Amino acid sequence: MLLSSLFLGLTAITAAFAAPTEVEASLPVLEKRQSINTGTGTNGGYFYSYYNSGGGSATFTGGSGGAYSLRWTNSGNIVAGKGWATGAARTITYSGTFSPSGNAYLAVYGWTRNPLVEYYIVDNYGTYNPATGLTFVGTVYSDGSNYNIYKATRTNQPSIVGTATFTQYWSIRQTKRTGGTVTTANHFNAWRSYGLNLGTFDYQIVATESFGSSGSSSITVR
Fold first, then answer.
1. pTM of the full structure
2. Is residue 209 annotated as a catalytic residue, yes or no?
3. Helices (DSSP H) in the chain: which residue ranges?
4. What is the pLDDT of residues 110-120, one digit of tens each?
5. Measured in Å, how far apart are the chain's first and last C-alpha atoms?
6. Does 22 qualify as catalytic in the annotation?
7. Is it the case that residue 141 has pLDDT exceeding 90?
8. What distance lies between CA 55 and its chain's CA centroid?
9. 127 Cβ partners below 8 Å, 6+ apart?
10. CA 77 from centroid of its chain's CA atoms
11. Vertex 150, ends 197 and 167: CA angle to 5°?
């Protein structure tokens, strides 16, 4: 009789823990996050690109939709973000946090082919101004601030077609921010007016980039 009573008691306790209550059923489902390896692909319905030259440590994590986070410590060169497999003169909205300690950028970033161009529309950066060593071209006003426009030539450097020589175009915001709207057409048109022509669009992302620094970034692209 005693053993039978104990068995019935344990069965009741197990059932109480195993069966979800109405309260449990009503709890929100936590956002699924996924650690992403270097390369390109799709996460949350958005294209992503993650380049890491090595050195230090870094974790790039994808969330639902256009959300991603990047944490890095004593990194080499890292470029990570979400966006679109094919760039365009689109209006991009994003939000989040950007907390670098050292050299890092937050930018709309992409490439074109024929000509091969790497481009940046920089909204925020860390202790190092990316304009250092670039050739000043002019300015453009867009989305609440002036941006300084620069160009540079990169010789025998990594690119979307392998090691190559290519041109860089930069728009660097004079008043830093993390979040807002980037009207890329304003920059593309301004670059063109200064003779900085783009080719056929390859990918386009809202990127966090770091060089030999530490920090974190949590961004959602829309």
1. 0.85
2. yes
3. 2-18, 22-25, 184-193
4. 999 999 999 99
5. 65
6. no
7. yes
8. 19
9. 100, 102, 103
10. 14
11. 50
- Catalytic one among 22, 24, 31, 209? 209
For residue 190, give every residue at least 6 positions away whose Cβ sits within 8 Å of its Cβ, in sequence order, or none: 138, 140, 142, 149, 171
Show the tokens assigned to 168.
């860089």
Strands (DSSP E) along the chain, which ranges?
A: 34-35, 39-43, 46-52, 57-62, 67-73, 77-84, 91-113, 117-125, 135-142, 145-157, 164-173, 180-183, 200-221
Cα four-point dihedral sign 95, 50, 149, 202: negative
Q: Please give the structure tokens belonging to residue 136.
A: 């000043």
Q: What are the tens digits of pLDDT across the range 157-212? A: 999 999 999 999 999 999 999 999 999 999 999 999 999 999 999 999 999 999 99
CA angle 196, 199, 201 (to 5 degrees): 120
3-state DSSP assignment of residue 88: coil
